[in-house]
Amino acid sequence: MSQQENKKPGWGGRLSDPGALRELLGRHGFHFSKSLGQNFLINPSVCPRMAEACGAQECAGVLEVGPGVGVLTWELSQVAKKVCAVELDTRLFPVLEETLAGCDNVKVIRGDVMKLDLSRLVQEEFGGGPICVCANLPYYITSPVLLRLLEEELPLRAITVMVQKEAAARLCAAPGTRECGAVSVAVHYRSVPRVLFPVSRGSFLPPPKVDSAVIRLDLREEPPVEVADEAWFFRVARGAFAQRRKTAANSLSSALGIPKPQVEAALAAVGAAGARAERLTLEQLAALSNRLLEAVASP
Ligand code: SAM
User: Fold this and answer.
1) What is the per-residue pLDDT across 179-203, written as a single tens digit (0 to 9) for each?
2) pTM score, two decimals?
3) Which DSSP category does 56 fall into?
4) Cα–ligand 1 centroid distance for 191 (angstroms)
5) Which terminus of the chain, N or C, has fewer Cβ atoms within 10 Å?
6) Which residues make Cβ contacts (< 8 Å) with residue 260, sequence separation at least 6?
7) Residues flanking ligand 1, CB < 6 Å
8) Is omega for the bond preceding 130 within 30 degrees of 0, making it cis?
């Protein structure tokens, strides 16, 4: 350990040492849970890069999802005013108490990120923000977590997350291109996304079966298209992609319970007759959701 690290509280860089990590986890009788997506980072260069890239300095603080043993949390605590880390697995709490001992700007919150009242958390912990999110996401809830963060009106500046490599490509794919899905629509509506860097599967303990990538979403101040009702727009986007192999008309009609001829007419009016969802641009999806809103309001 360098002299500089020696002066800092908590475990810091030592958490990237597989031997030290195994010793720590063994001492706490901890076993990895596959169902909670527990693959802990052991590549020493990844967390400093994420902490550096997430924009912590420009925010009231950082929200982390799933601190695990605190390897990223610790790096974030070095650059952020405050870090709140939400962890579901209570077995990790005594471990975090040890690894983050003395990191006074870190608060670990027990809970499920899908159930917590995030607006309240931002208000209570960060004085209303703005905040940024930085996390190595549990992969089984990548899309639901991102959708929550993007669809709720939270004071977010940026979201920097590690996701599966394929998910990174999908999330950053522009609407109207083959790889895009309902989450990419929300991503592009709310933010400007980019892939920052790849991360190999060997960077984790235990190693997952797939490679990963870190992406950053910079939240927009204004959406790029005009939408009459955002909640409805997101429903339309989800409905259009609900059955990817079908046409958008079929998928939307069954997802939203609107008669197919009405959906077909709305699609034709936005220049997308007979199209599948992945062919619809953001502008077309916005216009379509506005037309369908009129259709349901005056059937
Ligand atoms: N940040 C650590 C790292 O990079 O090594 C751990 C990342 S690990 C991929 C995901 C973490 O999310 C685990 O600690 C897991 O227990 C936690 N987790 C899983 N589901 C969660 C949920 N619904 N809410 C909050 N945390 C969750």
Assistant:
1) 999 999 999 999 999 999 999 999 9
2) 0.93
3) G
4) 24
5) C
6) 249, 250, 253
7) 36-41, 65-68, 71-72, 86-89, 92, 112-114, 136, 138, 141
8) yes
